[in-house]
User: Fold these one by one.
Assistant:
Number 1:
Amino acid sequence: MDASTTATEQENQCECSRYSVLVNLRKAANGDLEWDEELTTGCAATARKLFAQGHDAKLKSFLIRAGAAGHEVQRNEGGMTSVADAATHANRYSFGHMISRRNRARRSQGCRKGRAAGV
Ligand SMILES: [Zn+2]
């Protein structure tokens, strides 16, 4: 009767928490991988659906920032890590088309601004 008490329903790790960016990932002299900084969405939420509420937007802005900075993004699911650019990851979701469109818009905007500044 009470739809809000669905505690028996399984909660999964929120989709946005699977993503991270390792900044300046490189191989160290001893062969180990090292990086300067790990960027994440900072999410520790669980979700009954793919995303915790509002976290599709959180992931979207994370991928937009990573894409704009030219970072490779890794996605970890059950110990398996896949690495791709932000737009490729974003294509899994309904907002995927917005990532590539926005990146294109940002680039052309930069050109226009550059030309305007030269006047
Ligand atoms: Zn999340």
Number 2:
Amino acid sequence: MLQDIKVIGATLMKAGNIELYKQLLDYQADAQKLIDENMKLKEENRVLKEKLMIQSELEFRNNQYFRIKDGIKLGPYCTRCWDAESKLINLHQSNDGYSDCPSCKVSVVNNQAPYNQSYDDSFGW
Ligand SMILES: [Zn+2]
């Protein structure tokens, strides 16, 4: 589309039609804005789809998130960082019975019993 506009612009310049050429430049700028906005919206759409996919794979358990992806348990992840910032941050286990988020510094007790033993057993947890 922008290439066509350049060809038309060159033709108008050769013909000496400055008013139409200026109008064409305005259309070219408008077209570029639409292209940029479309790219931005496509990227936002991709990020939202990815977030929805991750959200559907998350299990909340013992104040932590675990991600079940292709039958594999990943995590635990910080609930605060996902809920507030959509970031999956791995919790670090410490020797005092807590798991700590290296990003937001939240600590959760990591020695609680699983909420659903039969579900956990099906995944080998
Ligand atoms: Zn966090």
Number 3:
Amino acid sequence: MARPADDDQTTGTRPDPSRRSALLTLAGAAVAAAGGAWWWRSAASASEGSQDAIATPSEPLPRGRAPVSLFYTSAYVGAAHAFETTRKAAWVAQSLIEAPIPGLQLTTHDALTADEVLAVHAPAYVEAVRTGEPRDLAQSQGFPWDAALWPMVVASNGGAVAAARAALATGGIAGALASGLHHARRDHGAGFCTFNGLVIAALQALAGKAKRVLILDFDAHCGGGTHSLLGEHPAVRIVDVAVDGFDAYLPLGANTLDRVTSADAYLPTISRRLAALDGDRFDLCLYNAGMDPHEGCPVGGLAGIDAAVLGERERMVFDWARQRKLPLAFVLAGGYLGPTLAQDELVALHRLTLAAAAQPPR
Ligand SMILES: [Zn+2]
């Protein structure tokens, strides 16, 4: 997290850089096989002008239910710098080839155009990410720039937009294997987040038929970038439950930011915040489904939050949305390897989100 945000009212701790460096080395080794062999089959629902074909699980879909679209393209992992945020989508996609989740359909989509990014981000910053100059601005999210960064971030941010469009179109759930969004500001990146696809998706939805948008941010870290861009928007409400003080902010209006410091309080806090939304009406929920609250994550983890807790969190969120017939679009968000969290375990954590998204309500 190379550059403190200018408008960031951070009050909490930041990850120790040396620990972070060790973590990234570990991650780099772990992703060596991430490219892997792909099993290609064009998704039936792939849009015209798609960037590439996409592998689709061959499992039969449950009867009577439309599949949940899960957006992904190989460009999501194009940047040269290899760590969780730039490789994790491929790990999860590969896991779906090897062990499909019934009811979930990997689907390709178009990348964002520069104009779509410019609707939220400053021209000088967008140009820096595209060209690499000035380099400190191009790398303000905290990892080295290379020419594949721009195609990567317009693809992965486009996944958030595609998921929001699909959720609105179907009235149901859709997702994207995107991460690295919620710390990004208008004029620079932060905390491994280059552009803020949550904000781009919210504003595009509001420019269409959506009248009000809810953003649930249950990543371990606070979503200060999202709040800096939408905290005063009258048609957006942000519910942020974090377990780490990085990128904290003072929530404006009806927005809320909880920093949970005890695992015992984690699910009750989320349950209470969801219940408090019952009197409000939304047309779309954008869900930043970070797995970095897991106790094994060196960046963000809280002791006592394990896979069972996070699985229950995901069931709570998706059941809550389904019971209200609220269209929901989710992205992966944070999740980091550590001495006690191996790559397959991290993938399994993110699959908790996918499984809950694909399941019928309890
Ligand atoms: Zn995080």
Number 4:
Amino acid sequence: MQTASQNIKNNCCFFSKTCTNNKRAAAIHVSNLLRNSTLPLLGAHMSVEGGLHKAFERITLVKGESLQIFSKNQRQWEVPPLRDSEIKQFKKAWEQWGQKHVAVHDSYLINLANSDAQKSNRAVGAFAEEINRAGLLTIPYLIMHPGSHVGAGIEQGLKQLTKNLDRAFEKAAEATAVMVLLETTAGQGTVLGSRFEELAYIISHSKYSDRLGVCYDTCHTFAAGYDISTKKGYSKTFSDFESIIGLDRLKFFHLNDSKKELGSRVDRHDHIGKGKIGLTGFRQLLNDPRFVAHPMVLETPKEKDLKEDIENLKLLRSLATKNKS
Ligand SMILES: [Zn+2]
Ligand SMILES: [Zn+2]
């Protein structure tokens, strides 16, 4: 049995590196450790159709405790700036929902690893805009796909990505509270970020290392060859993560089962327990005391009534063992 204060003592170290410059994330983390539950904060990615604040209605409907959104149309380069009224409405809806984690996912169009100067410049501008928007909305985390080297090779791609990431941080100089989380990828084609070593390279070479963390996608990493479906594989995966990147960098999870096999390098999300990871894998993650107050969001297929999210969240909660709180 762990008390709330023990929880903070044992787990806050994962956030300590960034506690100082990401006070909002740290405050939310502490408040979540105090909520007297040892279950991670389960939630989902929600649509912002009808306005950014609408995402909170949707997450409330599925009883989610963490949320991910796009802060703009993810398939368009140009978007109008955020209006004051929009920001106000968003903050109000967030407050009503509670002291819970929200993250933004960046646009799918942005590839910071591209060596082409023109494409690079456009990506840097768009990514700086993503950081700024998250800053205006007071969202602590911006989750990004590390991008694709498009034939230049992994090393060159990582160098380019790190350089462009730093340029974007410089450009978005006012939004200093936003932390960027590099998402683990399946490694399809020339996509970067499928090996922990690649993420560690970016983190250690960036001038803004203290503002970088990792978002762990269960489907992507499984497709990349990290097997969390077995006890042995799970333990090896997170001990590798700890020694290569450090668990204090791990801030957020995407919970998706994988339609494709271990090491397939193909990114196809499946409903929890329906794919190749299976319930054993998710049970281990949900009962891992290291992730007791971490936000974990679903990115699984769903219809407008969000029935699938409700079912997936119910299933995930049922996997938590009863005797650990
Ligand atoms: Zn993801
Ligand atoms: Zn994916």
